[in-house]
Specification:
This protein is an alpha/beta fold. The strands form 9 sheets. A 9-stranded parallel β-sheet has the order 1-3-5-6-8-10-12-14-15, covered by helices on one side. Strands 18-19-20-21-22-23-24 form a 7-stranded mixed β-sheet, with no helix packed on it.
Length: 863
């Protein structure tokens, strides 16, 4: 009977739904198809048939579970591990695991899930989650949050993600953890990094999140993607540092090594990260084929990272377009593309240089296309171009222009603006006005082409060797006969008529043909201290003007007399620029001003013009004062007289020896004012802006009393007139292209020499601490009115009687400004002699006024 009862109990247990419980490790193991149902519900596990209180691990792997109810695990309060891998689960409600308050590990690998929703893993104690080997293509942002303070591993490898939003960075931050929080997204289909969720970068050290993206479909990495996380990020080392803090490992992806990865590659190589984690972070190319396997971050030459554009991307049909970021160039090759004109539009890649090669086409001319001003290199060899429009050439900024083998018979002078021009193979025709081409090539060796020729006068003439005679532009016999007949018959009559009606032109022609210089004599031409024949003033920023200056210098010193020319743009002594302007203009016989449209915007060029004009006025003032003194009496001072006031002595007692050199400079300046340079104005062109300036009253008045010339070919007598206005004898050395190099005896040395040997200039050889005896001035008792009207012979003496100083700003010494010197060395020794006490009192009052003005002026300089 007892055995029958035991057998009956065993049979009943075999038919029940109770499951094996292992009390050793607390695991309820129902793996291996031990469940009878494919749907897990709350009734699957009951307190009656399962000891749920002691279960800490529940293993349901390798069943055919297709669905799990939201309350299926409500009874498992102590479960720490839940295994649901290798089933057929397609969906999980976001509150399915909410009741598992002690859950630490969740295994749902090898199922059929397609998405993950917010709240699914919002469990405070959760440390590891395994969603690998599913079919997940969407993860809702917020799947992890600050609730997941213990989460260390989120495994999602081998799924179907096609993009990666930064949802993994919204998680708990401890700031003291030494192990990174890992999100494993390897072996997905991720092609790009996105920010659809609108996350703003806010990561701080120690950057606890690490994302594994190896073996995905990422084809490019560029720093522009960082802007979707932070709009203020810049393309520098800080941008790549920001990328590094994301800890995204994108190695072992099929990278396309083109222009899109150039910025990050160049940044890494030029920054501090070039040798950081090199072996770990190898970004190898999949395409193009010739770069396959190369690491574009460390190994590939940067000039190989280019993009070949298609027609859909804006490249003209039949052309090859390439973006070359390393040279900052957009390259377009349309050779042999059957074009009849340049393409109307090009894709704007915002590169600094645009290079277009359109050889071997049927292009008939250069048209005004929208991108014309951006072209830096244009080749149009072997086309049908017959005419070049001057206005089109003006709008171009290209450096190189290739027009070989076209149909050009001539070309305008505007072609001179290009740095390099190739013109051989064109049927050029020359006439008497074509000599400018020879002069152009003589000046600029980069343009010179020995093989360039033209047809003229029934023959072929190489432009670099042709002469006016080759072009049939001279008839010596006719000229000689006409000259002899003219001289014998009407020479005298014509000479008299011309001399009366055109006296200036007559003087110019006499100087040109007879060498007779009958113009006004200028004191500066006989002053031995004037060692510079011409001081040039021109717009240093205008390429056209600079080109003309080169031609001007070449032409000027092609024959004697040879002139010494100072080009301030090439040579200037060390020191304040304003002082150098005053010094060198003071040593010049002529100041040649080239008036162009933008020179009035250059304050230094206007300062040079004003300095020259100022000196002309000062010279006239000095002459007038000298005439006034001669008419009112002489000045005689005896040092033994009791009324003699030695202002230089006072100044030497008050100042220090550092002012000696400055006094020498000022004395030199005063002497130079007595022989001002002559000013020659050359109106460079007929620009409307220039005309507006010259129509103002200031410039009308200024030009009315000066020599004003128009350059050739506007004035055929330009060179004759210019040489007439220049000194009769020059001091040049026959090297027209060299900057002025004055001899050592005049004390002007290059800046480097002055820095190496800072000794006093030989112009004023007195040492700084050496006193000199001042010349005495004799005053023959003029009254105060006479003294005030005529005794001043220069700007500093005028300052004595007006209480103001007229010393230009550029002539004030730096030492006076820094040492607080009262500048009294500029004063002359003056004796005030009168018949009564009132005269002497007046003089003394003027002296006190002068000292007060000097003190106030120096205090202002110190401020």
């Amino acid at each position: 009977m007892r055995w029958a009862i035991v057998l009956l109990l065993v049979c009943n247990l075999a038919r029940s739904d109770s499951y094996e419980y292992s009390g050793v490790n607390g695991m309820l193991d129902l793996s291996g198809h031990r469940l009878n149902s494919t749907n897990i519900t709350k009734d699957t596990f009951t307190v009656g048939n399962t000891d749920v209180d002691n279960i800490v691990a529940l293993n349901l792997t390798n069943n055919s579970i297709a669905s799990v109810d939201v309350d299926a695990f409500d009874v498992f309060f102590n479960v720490k591990e839940l295994h649901l891998s290798h089933n057929d689960i397609t969906f999980l409600h976001n509150e399915t695991f909410t009741s598992l308050r002690k859950l630490e590990k969740l295994f749902i690998s090898y199922n059929k899930l397609t998405e993950l929703r917010i709240g699914l893993v919002s469990i405070l104690t959760l440390k590891e989650v395994y969603f690998d080997n599913n079919n997940i293509s969407y993860v809702e942002p917020g799947i992890v949050s600050s609730v997941n303070r213990d989460l260390m591993l989120f495994d999602m490898k081998n799924n179907s993600l096609e993009y990666m939003d930064p949802w993994m960075y919204i998680t708990h931050v401890t700031h003291n953890r030494s192990v990174d929080r890992v999100f494993d997204l390897r072996n997905n289909n991720v092609r790009e990094l996105t920010n659809k969720m609108g996350w703003s970068y806010n990561l701080t050290y120690p950057f606890e999140v690490e994302v594994l993206l190896q073996n995905n479909d990422v084809q490019t990495i560029n720093l522009n993607l960082l802007k979707q996380y932070d709009q203020n990020v810049t393309m520098d080392d800080s941008a790549f540092a920001m990328f590094m803090t994301l800890y995204v490992n994108v190695t072992s992806n099929p990278f396309v090594c083109d222009c899109n990865v150039y910025d990050i590659s160049a940044l890494v190589r030029n920054g501090v990260f070039r040798f950081t984690r090199v072996d770990e972070w190898r970004y190898r190319c999949k395409e193009p084929a010739h770069l396959e396997g190369w690491d574009f971050i460390h190994d590939i030459p940067l000039d190989q990272l280019v993009c070949n554009l298609t027609v859909d991307e804006g490249c003209p049909a039949g052309c090859f377009c390439q973006d070359r970021p390393d040279s900052d160039t957009f390259f377009v090759d349309c050779r042999g593309a059957g074009l009849t004109r340049l393409p109307e539009t090009l894709m704007d890649k915002s590169r600094s240089f645009l290079e277009i090669h359109a050889d071997d086409n049927a292009i008939t001319g250069i048209h005004n296309v929208p991108y014309l001003g951006r072209i830096t290199n244009l080749t149009l060899r072997n086309n049908h171009i017959s005419v070049l429009e001057p206005e089109i050439l003006k709008t171009m900024n290209a450096e190189h222009l290739d027009l070989r083998s076209n149909r050009l018979k001539n070309f305008p002078k505007e072609i001179k603006k290009f740095e390099s021009v190739l013109l051989t193979g064109n049927p050029l025709e020359c006439d008497c006005s074509s000599m400018w081409m020879k002069e152009w090539m003589d000046i600029d060796s980069r343009i010179a082409d020995p093989g360039l020729y033209c047809e003229a006068n029934g023959g072929r003439h190489y432009i670099m060797d042709m002469t006016l005679r080759d072009l049939g532009c001279t008839n010596e016999k006719v000229i000689i006969a006409a000259t002899v007949i003219g001289v014998l018959i009407i020479g005298v009559v014509i000479g008299v008529i011309v001399a009366k009606r055109c006296p200036y032109t007559t003087k110019v022609l006499m100087n040109k043909f007879l060498g007779v210089h009958s113009g006004d004599k200028y004191k500066c031409d006989t002053d031995t201290d004037k060692v510079i024949d011409a001081y040039l003033v021109f717009d240093h920023h205008d390429k056209d003007v600079i080109g003309y200056i080169r031609y001007f210098l070449h032409k000027l010193n092609k024959k004697k007399p040879l002139y010494s020319i100072l080009n301030p743009a090439q040579f200037m002594e060390a020191g304040p620029e304003q002082r150098n302007i005053s010094r060198y203009i003071g040593k010049s016989r002529r100041v040649v001003v080239f008036l162009s449209k933008n020179i009035f915007d250059d304050e230094w060029r206007m300062a040079e013009i004003d300095e020259a004009e100022h000196r002309v006025i000062e010279e006239q003032t000095i002459r007038n004062n000298e005439k006034a003194q001669k008419s009112k009496g002489t000045v005689d001072v005896e040092k033994g007289d009791t009324n003699y006031i030695d202002l230089d002595k006072c100044q030497e007692d008050e100042g220090d020896n550092s002012m000696a050199d400055e006094n020498n400079f000022r004395k030199e300046e005063n002497e130079s004012l007595k022989a001002a340079p002559k000013i020659i104005y050359i109106i460079y062109n007929n620009d409307e802006k220039l005309k507006e300036h010259l129509e103002t009253e200031v410039w009308k008045t200024r030009l009315a009393s000066r020599a004003v010339l128009l350059p050739d070919p506007d004035d055929r007598l330009f060179w004759a007139k210019f040489r007439y206005e220049m000194p009769k004898k020059g001091t040049g050395n026959g090297k027209p292209f060299m900057p002025f190099k004055p001899p050592e005896h005049i004390g002007i040395v290059p800046p480097t020499a002055r820095l190496a040997h800072p000794e006093p200039s030989p112009i004023n050889p007195r040492k700084p601490n050496q006193k000199q005896n001042k010349p005495k001035v004799n005053v023959k008792k003029p009254d105060v009115r006479t003294l005030l009207a005529g005794v001043a012979t220069n700007r500093k003496q005028n300052a004595l009687f007006t209480g103001l100083t007229h010393t230009p700003v550029h002539s004030r010494p730096a030492s006076a400004e820094s040492n607080g010197s009262n500048g009294s060395k500029d004063l002359k020794r003056i004796q005030f002699i009168g018949d009564n006490k009132g005269t002497n009192d007046t003089a003394n009052a003027l002296l006190q006024k002068l000292k007060f003005s000097r003190t106030m002026h120096n205090n202002k300089n110190i401020k």
